[in-house]
Give the backbone structure.
Amino acid sequence: KAGVTQTPRYLIKTRGQQVTLSCSPISGHRSVSWYQQTPGQGLQFLFEYFSETQRNKGNFPGRFSGRQFSNSRSEMNVSTLELGDSALYLCASSLGPQGAGNTEAFFGQGTRLTVV
Amino acid sequence: GQQLNQSPQSMFIQEGEDVSMNCTSSSIFNTWLWYKQDPGEGPVLLIALYKAGELTSNGRLTAQFGITRKDSFLNISASIPSDVGIYFCAGQEANSKLTFGKGITLSVRP
């Protein structure tokens, strides 16, 4: 069974540009959550999608958005990139929505975004 | 918002030693998860705990769900160099998102 796949693995963008990251969850998993990881800040929750609906949203500006498709694949978009957006972006998939009980979250390898 | 406390930020041990790390919360959790992250990679799930008092092992790793449901610990026995990495705990309340600790960076001296 394939794991969580994130593409691309590495990305370099210029300030002001926008970027789209992709996440394919484990087959059969319907929940995808996105996190931003920077040194010293740990894993900061961005949002969670389940059955194409956003269930939870973290404390990030509106420049960060996401969506989920009917096949459970998810994309995350960041517009008007800032230097501070440089981070490892991780997605995690789980069978059911977070909080539903006994739903372990499995992470992809992440996308390393560098904004210059 | 919800916070999980993991401390210290870094731990340094000698190869072959045991190490224990714990995670505490101000709220009650229904689920505790422990992850390990290698540099440049995503976190890998090590152990999942679902009941208060539950003790679960995965090879040299053992984790326990605290009786108060506000804490959990992870123990690594007979450490080896490949145990190096960042260890995260994560907790989940009913009908709420996962909350992660800031992680503990483990270094193992050969």
The first strand of chain B starts at residue 4 and ends at 7. The two ends of chain B are 40 Å apart (CA to CA). Residues 6 and 23 of chain B are 5 Å apart (CA to CA). The interface with chain A takes residues 1, 30-31, 33, 35, 40-45, 48, 50, 88, 90, 92-98, 100-103 of chain B (CB under 8 Å).
